[in-house]
Amino acid sequence: MIDKKTIAKNIPNAIKTVKVKGLGKKESGKVRDWYSKGSFRILIATDRISAFDKVLGLIPFRGAVLNMLSQFWFEKTRDIIPNHMIGVVDPNIMLISEAKALPVEVVVRGYITGVTSTSLWKRYSEGERVIYGIKFPDGLKRHQKLKSPVITPTTRGTGAGGHDEPITKEEIIRQKLIPAAIWRQVEKVAYALFDRGTKIASSAGFILADTKYEFGLDRKGRLILIDEIHTPDSSRFWLKESYYQKMKKGEDPENYDKEYMRLWFVKEGYAGRGKAPQMPESLIVKISQRYIEVYEKLTAEKFEIDTTKPQLTRILESLSKLI
Ligand SMILES: Nc1ncnc2c1ncn2[C@@H]1O[C@H](COP(=O)(O)OP(=O)(O)O)[C@@H](O)[C@H]1O
Ligand SMILES: [Mg+2]
Fold first, then answer.
1. Which of 180, 204, 234, 268 could form a Cys-Cys staple with 297, CB 3.0–4.6 A?
2. Are 139 and 90 in the same domain?
3. Residue-range definition of the domain harbouring residue 41
4. Of 148, 227, 156, 161, whose CA–CA distance to 187 is shortest?
5. Percent of the chain with pLDDT over 70
6. Tens-place pLDDT, residues 246-268
């Protein structure tokens, strides 16, 4: 694994944004920048990290980890559903085919957990028993495994800072957000993807507690998987070996996802409003190491990246070959 010193040395080189002349207009989400080229997009994973719907800092090598992990999972699941990946031309860059994104994010949960208003545990602990139109039994404990995974869809918050709102399957169909036949296919595929993810994560020593998928329709109107898949940004990964012990003691599972960073901000008294505290170097290094570790465990491959030059220099060289 890349050592701490190399990570620390690369903090000033972490990728904030990738602006290039000759590629047209740059567009940005919270984490990724992209350039649209007709029917495809050049999708660049930056090192920006967000929580509470805000960008809170830069973590060196995070973008590369997210991009390469998505690549790994897209390859491991293409027998279940075709996806938008055309190819990876750099650790941070994926060429993807542009799709018409469905207006619903498909969250699959195998465990009852979470603290935000859309999470199952929050609502269950407040006494709700029918959540997202799904009936839950009494007596569930926080972080407990559900009898079988459930789908808890949210509408896509549009625009920067847009919030996701919970919705039920009945509403999705009634409001004609997605045709019923397509939604049925989405559900079937989402459960199959979650099952595949659970098995691969498990052999790497992780529990895939929950995740989010995005789907789109390609030019022929076929359903495809888009965005990212089973990354520590879209999923909760818990360490399997300490899960039962922690559960018994009433403690939180060991997180290998964004929760780790979220908890630091909460400890600092920040919950999304006002001026965000600056993450110290030691924390940035630790987060980067966790991302690299989860990549290496899940893929059973070393995280290889050229550290002889700044990341941005390499990314720009890769992009220049596309112009
Ligand atoms: N194949 C695709 N076609 C169209 N849109 C896509 C595709 N793949 C991903 N997207 C969208 O591109 C954006 C990726 O950038 P990201 O930084 O993740 O944004 P966000 O802040 O919305 O999460 C997301 O809005 C995602 O829905
Ligand atoms: Mg996103």
1. 204
2. no
3. 4-98+282-320
4. 148
5. 98
6. 999 999 999 998 888 988 998 99
What is the count of structural domains for the chain? Answer: 2
Per-residue model confidence as pLDDT tens digits over 132-171 = 999 999 999 999 999 999 999 999 865 444 568 999 999 9
Is residue 257, in this structure, part of any structural domain at all? no
Answer whether residue 276 is part of any domain.
Answer: no
Cβ-in-10-Å burial (0-12, 13-18, 19+) of 276 comes to middle
- The residues facing 216 across adjacent strands are 101, 224
Q: Do 235 and 224 share a structural domain?
A: yes
Best residue among 32, 106, 163 to mutate for probing ligand 1's pocket (most ligand atoms within 8 Å of CB) is 32
Instruction: Compute, in angstroms, the gap from residue 250 CA to the centroid of ligand 2.
Output: 31
With respect to residue 211, please indicate whether it lies within any of the assigned structural domains: yes
d(CA 263, CA 131): 25
Model confidence over 200-236: pLDDT tens digits? 999 999 999 999 999 999 999 999 999 999 999 999 9
The answer to whether the CB of 156 is under 6 A from ligand 1 is: no
Q: Does ligand 1 have an atom closer than 6 angstroms to the CB of 226?
A: yes
Pair 11, 40 in one domain = yes
Gap between the Cα atoms of 57 and 206, Å rounded: 26
Same structural domain for residues 94 and 105? Answer: no
Per the listing, tokens 């924390």 go with 283
* Residue 40 included in any domain: yes
Residues 44 and 15 in one domain: yes
